[in-house]
Amino acid sequence: MLGGVENHSLPRTAAFFDLDKTVIAKSSTLTFSKSFYQGGLINRRAALRTAYTQFVFLAGGADHDQMERMRQYLSALCRGWNVQQVREIVAETLHELIDPIIYDEAASLIEEHHAAGRDVVIVSTSGAEVVEPIGELLGADRVVATRMVVENGVFTGEIEYYAYGPTKAEAVRELAASEGYDLARCYAYSDSATDIPMLEAVGHPHAVNPDRALRREAIAREWPVLSFSRPVRLKQRISSLSMPSRPALVTAAAVGAAAATAGLLWLASRRRGTASALSTFAAKSKELRAGLPLPPRQE
User: Fold this and answer.
1) Which of 62, 135, 155, 265 could in theory staple to 66 by disulfide, Cβ–Cβ 3.0 to 4.6 A?
2) pLDDT for 282
3) The 3-state secondary structure of 142-169, one letter per residue
């Protein structure tokens, strides 16, 4: 269980979430490869290569060398892309592609941290054009993401700011200084050993679906290890949380029927006296019971 509601006389706190394989079940950037292909930004060969890269990422995560190769590949791939077109493609396909792969457990954690008065910050190596809309979808308060150099409205292929490894930890410390977060009371979540510096920066680090290296480190340091395995659409989560159960609906119907019957009894007693009212009560109760759904059987 998380801590209770924040005491506003104390310094502020936050929960820092890695994105890929921590909050969502795939790589956020690679998930849009089909949409980028359909939008004419990449060719079929590049689309197939990004699909393969996604498979490798999901199968075993990515160590430092693999992340570096992925960075070089994606930087070269996006050279010359129109930034506005990228943003439009992401906006048009965001709910279709990202909504179904959000971990239910991560969405619940985000809600719990907000309920406790903590800010939620997404810290991702993926590009800002992808991460910022996802952060908004998740209700995050802030986003830290990789930023590409843009000239005349297109990506040059060069990186202005790379949110990776120690750089993530630096971003967390800078946010703590600017926003007044007490890092000793903050939380962080990640699946990758490359994020150990970020996890070390807070008082409550958590390994989520960790790769082998992070699992070993988490066990050695006695960090909590969480397993997220239930991707679910946010709309389905909202529906399941807000829709009353069938027993509740039956109970509500019964209460409404009882109130209606009581009203009929009162009117009848006013008009025809007590004996006639009792007769009306019995008749109307029988009619209302016949129209109610049967309660579910108890197994």
Assistant:
1) 62
2) 46
3) EEEEEEEEEECCEEEEEEEECCCCHHHH
Give CA–CA dist 63/197, Å, rounded: 14
Residues in a beta bridge with 159: 148
Q: What is the rounded CA–CA span in Å between residue 47 and residue 233? A: 25
Radius of gyration of the chain (CA): 27
Whether residue 1 is predicted with pLDDT greater than 80 in this model: the reply is no
Which H helix or E strand runs over 207?
strand 204-208
**Which superfamily is assigned to 14-240 in CATH?**
HAD superfamily/HAD-like (3.40.50.1000)
Separation between Cα atoms, residue 76 and residue 99, nearest integer Å: 28
d(CA 207, CA 226): 6
Task: Give the domain ranges of the chain.
Answer: 14-240, 244-291
The β-bridge relationship of strands 142-151 and 154-161 is antiparallel
Residue 68: per-residue pLDDT: 77
Q: Please identify every residue annotated as catalytic.
A: 18, 20
Say which residue, 92 or 276, is predicted with more confidence. Answer: 92
Half-sphere exposure of 244 (CA within 13 A, CB side): 8
Token couple for 237 = 């989560």
Burial grade of 238 (CB within 10 A; 0-12, 13-18, 19 or more): exposed
Task: Single out the residue of 82, 75, 123 nearest to residue 90, CA to CA.
Answer: 82
Q: Which helix (H) or strand (E) holds 124?
A: strand 119-127
Residue 146: beta bridge partners?
127
Residues 135 and 123: their CA atoms lie apart, in Å, by 10
* Residue 81, CB-side half-sphere exposure with 13 Å CA sphere: 26
pLDDT tens figures, 51-80: 656 545 555 555 667 677 777 877 888 899
- Rounded Cα gap, residues 22 and 195, in angstroms: 11
